[in-house]
Amino acid sequence: MGRTGRCLPAEHRPLCAYLASALLDAALVAADCRVLDAGTGPGAVAALAVARGAEVVAVDAEASMLEVVRRQVPAATVRQAILPDLPFPDEAFDVAVGNFVINHLGDPGAGVAELARVVRPGGRVAVTIWPDPEPPQHRPSLQQLWIDIARAACLQRPATLPWLDADKNFDRTAEGLAGLLRATGLSDADCHTISWVHRTDPEDWWSGSANGFGSLGVLMSGQPPSRIARIRQEYDRLAAAYRTDDGRLALPAAALLAVGTVR
Fold first, then answer.
1. In the structure, how many helices (H) and strands (E) does the chain have?
2. Which parts of the chain register pLDDT below 70?
3. Phi, psi at residue 193, to the nearest 5°?
4. pLDDT tens digits, residue range 201-245?
5. Would you tell me how many other CB atoms lie within 10 Å of the CB of residue 211?
């Protein structure tokens, strides 16, 4: 769930985990709270929720990710499940959270509605996504770096990649995400942008894309070695602007965090 059948690469996990604490704060997660962590990935959100004293159920479509969570967050209950079809009764939780999950779904609205279904009235649903386009005040950013690399290497989006149906799509903006929550019946829906600087090793960051993860990874899939070499050349050239004195990359990042209350 939320990983399109792929494991989240180790080099991307700190990036996605950055918002875990803010996500739980938005959902008002505290001790004895019953929490569903949908699309848990390696369990960063689940681990923080358990540390707060919450009762956590973590679900994901990827079995290998669930094995990681079982090892690293033994106090959490782990289930394999795929949005928008959760194996839980109505109102089973106080809170449901999804960290960078709904942006991977074929029907994001159905996914949010399913999260709301399993939360009691008065409980909260909180989600995060990457914005598109990025807010001008948060540029340049790591997302823009991939866009610039793709343009410099003359990469085109493959025609075989799926698009969301127009009636299921939504604007990847603060208002668009808040509107998606309102459309599924959540009240007091609010969304804001969180920005930070992600620091990483340049070889690690390249590795994720070279193995097919992320927007650039999708574009690189199936490319001949000569084109991969060209992309790597542009990566090295453009990423140099983000290098720090210690040789690592300091990549500005921005994400959207939205929360709403179940009626």
1. 10, 7
2. 1-12, 134-140, 157-163, 214-215
3. -95, 135
4. 999 889 888 777 766 777 887 788 999 999 999 999 999 999 999
5. 15
pTM exceeding 0.70: yes
Q: Give me the amino acid identity at 5.
A: G
Placement of tokens 């959207």 in the chain: 256
If we measure between CA atoms, which residue out of 129, 142, 138 comes closest to residue 175?
129
Q: What tokens appear for 120 in the block? A: 């009691």
Question: C-alpha distances in angstroms, 47 versus 7, 11, 56?
Answer: 18, 18, 9
**Per-residue pLDDT at 2:** 37
With CA atoms as reference, report the closest residue to 170 among 96, 113, 214, 122. 113
Token pair for 105: 């779904």
Q: Report CA torsion sign: 241, 100, 24, 208.
A: negative
Instruction: Name all domains of the chain by residue range, CATH numbers in brackets.
Output: 10-261 (3.40.50.150)
Token pair listed for 13: 């996990």
* pLDDT, tens only, 178-194: 999 999 999 999 999 99
Cβ contacts of 156 within 8 Å, gap of 6 or more: 219
Which of 78-86's residues contact partners 24+ apart within 8 Å by CB, and which partners?
78/40, 81/1, 81/38, 82/1, 83/1, 83/2, 83/38, 83/39, 83/110, 83/111, 83/114, 83/115, 84/110, 84/111, 84/113, 84/114, 85/114, 86/36, 86/38, 86/59, 86/114, 86/115, 86/117, 86/118
**pLDDT for res 14:** 84
Name the nearest CA neighbour of 33 among 114, 131, 120, 128.
Answer: 120
